[in-house]
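@channel sequence for tomorrow's demo:
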Amino acid sequence: MATLREKLHPSASYEEDGYGWALEQAELLRARRFDRIDADNIAEEIEGLAKGIAGELRNRYGTLLTHLLKWQFQPEQRSYSWVGTIRRERIEITKHLRDNPGLQPRREELFDDSYEGARLQAVSETNLPPERFPEARPYLLEQAMDPAFWPGGEDLPERPRRKGRR
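structure tokens (generated this afternoon):
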């Protein structure tokens, strides 16, 4: 007897219907129908999932580095928003590594890989000349992740006082 899935999307093709294929493969795996699974494409998708998880860490490192660069090289523009982004990324990176301990050995590599893009993003966001930012990564991973590390100092502009406050 055919399942509802098979009636709606019989033998979905990986190339023609990725969504239908994925649902069908999940059903076959749960049913332990290993003789019918598309093992090569499943393996490719699982590798893609792992690359995406690593890519998220690389992107978070990039955001952190972008804001540390802006913090250091454009101190007159420092804002509480930058503080929030730096703190948030440090927390989220820690959580991501906790949830994906297999990434631990790749931390340095992914941190290094993120720097060039972070530097270009800092150039774009600050309108400062590219040569203002070092070509080589100026911070160690341990520094970037240290909540007490603020390159160039932790000084923020004074918050404007609201009217009516003492």
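heads up for whoever presents: The chain has a mean pLDDT of 90.
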